[in-house]
Amino acid sequence: MIFTSITFFAFFALVLALMALIRSARGRIWMLLIASYIFYGNWNANYVLLIFMYGLWGWGLGLAMYNASTPARKKFYFWLSVALSLGTLGYFKYANFFGDNIARLFDARAWDQVDVVLPVGISFFTFHTMSYLIDLYRGKIGPSRDPVKFFLFVSFFPQLVAGPILRASSFLPQLDRTLRVTWPNFVSGAQLFIGGAIQKSLFADHLSIFVDQVYRSPEIYSAGTLWLAVAAYSMQIFCDFAGYSLMAIGTARILGFELPENFRMPYLARSVADFWHRWHISLSTWLRDYLYIPLGGNRYGPTRTQVNMFITMLLGGLWHGASWNFVLWGALHGIALGLHRAWSGWRDRRGRGAKPTGWLPSLVGWSTTLLFCCLAWIPFRSPTLETTGIYLRGLLPGGDGIAWYHTPTLVILLLALIWHAAWQFAPRLVDRLPFRPAELVNWPALLTLGYAILMLILLVPLNTQPFIYFQF
Amino acid sequence: MYWRRMFQDCSSSRHTELTGGQVTGQGGRVVQAARQGRGRTLVRVLLALLVVLGSGELFVRSFVGGPSPQAYDPEIGFSYQPGSDLFQAKEGFTHLHFNALGLNDREPARKGGRCRVLVIGDSYTAALQVPQDQNFTSVAERLDPHLDVVNGGRDGLFLGDMHKVAARLLPQLRPDLVVYVISERAVETDIALPGFSVIVDPRSGAIVDAVMQVEGQESLKRIFGPVLSRSALATRLSAQFKPMVVDLIGQIDSWRHGLSSFGEAQAAQAAPGRASVPAPSDVEVLTFIFRRFRAQAPAALLYINGLSYAPHRKAAVAATSSAAEVVAVRAATRAGVSFHDTGEYLVESLARTGQPPFGFNNALLPGGHLNAAGHAAVGHALLDLVDELGPQLASDCRI
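Output (structure tokens, whole complex):
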């Protein structure tokens, strides 16, 4: 069920109606849990059992761990929960990858036939469950004794399939207060949803028409077209994912929940480290807290820090999918982060400050980061390593491919440029959004929202694309 | 009640003016002021709606497309309204005028000793993506002033409907030759559509008729036609909502079909002993259709090949297009209709101009419909076709 589909609107209208009809707080939690399972079951009814099992072992092992009489038992329950979560994730996500590689390496045909269907959003609910269990093990949070609340935490439908990744410490307390749909939350949530829908349907889906065609056969296009597709895909993946996150945050807010911010204009970053503070924030902080810091973080010297950072990014890349392209993407970011850290350290040691100041260094930092991040998306988007090679070669000047400058793509990139410039240079204008309930009857709000809705209805491509991050 | 309960916190929020709760228990003057305030808000909302819709209409007319020139046609679904105009920016950017016959062509002139060729086909022929003087019928006319080529194309015209268009235009135009333009879609998809039914004589197994039923969705044009022909915004909205409506109609049709097939099954049980006839092959169906073309007037087939592209601006005829062409050639040979393809012309066009013959900068490139370069190539193919067949045709074409 895609957020921008009629099915979802009907589903969500029903959820709101039930929120109004059901008076008890407990009843509303039950209703949201059932709605979440229906939302997930709409994609594949069989895998509802999987998400239920995640809830069951997360809740059960969490309690067992908390009540364990000895540290050894506590440790046992903890590692059992990690093994179950990662084992299940690993099986669904990487069985095909290993099957293909074993078949290729050892010419073993039986392995070639491994074909496991990846459950949508499995990475996200695995991460929810694991963050709860790790925090519980570390003693940062108490156990969730109410299974219904815990099951809802694992499967809450607005963010179920593509994040933002929830932390038990911020979500579970929200279930302890009375759930209400309030007018201010409705107004603000609906506007966030519209903003997300514009990013997804007007920007990302239109860009995908050009990007998909170019990536299907990059060898036939000119260098100019390939560079345009690099820019287009960079904007597409941002608008697609940030759009989904915004719609998820908006939907949740309408229901009375606050979800964490997931994107903060990442293409305005002035370094790769800054980029990761702005891009998929809930994943980067998850990786920092549950992978980088347990690996040792920056506690064991510069070399070990670099290694830890590289491993974290490599695994972050592999998390996106079982493909050498994702490994390459993760490795590139790992190397870039390492270089940035080394350079910042070098500046710091010479008393120049870790971060450069002044407009020229900022401009150089921003443009270098943008160029690197955009080019790093090439392996991320390419279906194979071979295509990545062809694409990179095609970017060099001197080719004689077909020159295609897709007009809608150029218009969208121009609009995106204006949007980013407004964010950077006119923050007061941006801060006026979303409109508050009292402002809704004013002309700026009426016209802005009127045009936004009209453009959404008029210009949404007929072939709605699924969200890119559904596959992760 | 429903909404008030749903937005429970309204009265407690600082934005209470929207709820009306603020005026409770206060004097009549406050109530009256609140009513006036509400009235002003309503007027403002309605004005904003008008402004948004008005500028939306202007926006669509300027950048997306004009009002629909289509009118409901009970035989072929829809046809272009005579004398209407079309603006579209979906593929290419064109302003077109349909003539008195509802064709994307100039007004029909007197034959005046010229060889008249009527071209019938789907969107490749209708050529709504390029200016009228750049489509392949105009190109062929320019290449040979002795030719009078009439563009009888309509976008989305099914192979099973082409003879109906010919039957309608033949008495008025009296062409020396009718050229049917087909492609992989016509050969493979059109004859497999659920609305296309082949009627077979149960005794001989021969095909007696092949009919394309008008799709249920087209009848909506009869209802909404007057609005769509005046408003670009309404036309665009209808295009956006069409998939949903089509889905709904399909759903209703399948329920209806389910019920009627239950009835048919009962009728079949009541009348046993009917021998089942094997379904005719694609070649047999196409042969029947092509024979029907020939029975109406001297006919020829022009096949638009799809291309597959290689680096360095090279292309070859796509394998799927070749496979469909083989089937079409076999049927054309059986039906005794002359068959000509455009593959060489299109490939040569790319090699010569460096420009793919299909696609536009604002849509797919390469892909989609023929662009100006593609139409130029097909124009040459059409001219060669007429040159080749001319000697076998009426006296006006024997030059």
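Chain A touches chain B at residues 6, 16-17, 19-20, 180-186, 209, 213, 217, 219-220, 400-402, 404-408, 436-438, 440-441, 443, 446-447, 450-451, 454, 457-460, 462 (CB under 8 Å).
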